[in-house]
Amino acid sequence: MQGCFHDWDPESSINIEFHAIYALNVDFGIPIYVNRGMESIDTQLATRIRQDIILGNYDEGERLSEAQLCEAYKVSRTPIRLALRLLEHEGIIRRGEGRGYLVQSPTVEDIIQAVEVRGHLESLAARLMAQNADRDDYLPQMTEAIEIIDETVSDLARLGHLSDTMVRQGLAANKLFHTSILGGCGNGYVAHTCEKISHLPMLSAGSMVFDRTVDDTPEHFDRGVFRLRIGNAQHKVIFEAIKQGDAVRAEGMMREHSHTMIEYIQMFEKQDSSLTVADLVAYSTS
């Protein structure tokens, strides 16, 4: 489920996965999965540099040198060198002529293309899971996720405004639902491929986006809560299709469920022709 608190048309939105735009203090929405205490220093550095690139703190095409980054992040050359290799592998930077690297910032179109790829991968995972004889092993996790999201949405409705704690609870359950399908599909390359693009905004498993104006009026809030219910209703359809072994229905609903992220990014572009990836980061939590 990807929750959305944004103006909507009930006639056109009933079968759409909903996203919202509410900025939480979760590393600007850029996926950071790790327990920092267990993370190597070069991975921490890669995360920090990646975040700075995506947020626009480095210009497109700007040259990055090891010496410059050592000074900026107060570390030695070895972890910087390892972090740069990781970011080069991700495509966030590229080697320049001579020494150093050049910033290769992802664009909004890059994010759209990556979301499209992830949608196809999750749809494939849903189909494969419905065909997997071991799928029952993962169904309890999916059931738990659906129930937690239902409870969270009901709690939000009673509260009458957004709560960071409740949003994080729903986010964790949403991640559990989606990762259960990736884990239960029986093909490790699907999850592996998803992981390769998960460093980008809106691309981590169970990523959600929330409307910063959701608490402006009761009407906006009620619409947002309704959309969250619709998103979880789609989860239930996917779950039942997988449980019953209906691969076609599971794949089709997951494709529809995943595609809405693209529709919302495109809508944001229409509203703001200067939309940047940094803007998308401000809209997302993961």
Structure description:
The protein has 286 residues and is mainly α. It folds into two domains: 10-33 and 107-285, Four Helix Bundle (Hemerythrin (Met), subunit A), CATH 1.20.120; 36-103, Winged helix-like DNA-binding domain superfamily/Winged helix DNA-binding domain (Arc Repressor Mutant, subunit A). Helices cover 60% and strands 4% of the residues. The protein has helices at 10-13, 41-54, 66-73, 77-90, 108-131, 139-159, 164-184, 188-196, 218-243, 247-271, 277-283; strands spanning 63-64, 93-95, 101-103, 208-209, 284-285. A three-stranded antiparallel β-sheet has the order 1-3-2. The protein has a two-stranded antiparallel sheet with strand order 4-5. Strand 2 (93-95) and strand 3 (101-103) form a beta hairpin. The longest helix has 26 residues, at 218-243.
Short description:
The chain is mainly alpha-helical and 286 residues long. The protein folds into two domains: 203 residues, Four Helix Bundle (Hemerythrin (Met), subunit A) (Up-down Bundle), CATH 1.20.120; 68 residues, Arc Repressor Mutant, subunit A.
What topology does this entry show?
Blueprint: H1 10-13, H2 41-54, E1 63-64, H3 66-73, H4 77-90, E2 93-95, E3 101-103, H5 108-131, H6 139-159, H7 164-184, H8 188-196, E4 208-209, H9 218-243, H10 247-271, H11 277-283, E5 284-285
Antiparallel strand pairs: 1-3, 2-3, 4-5
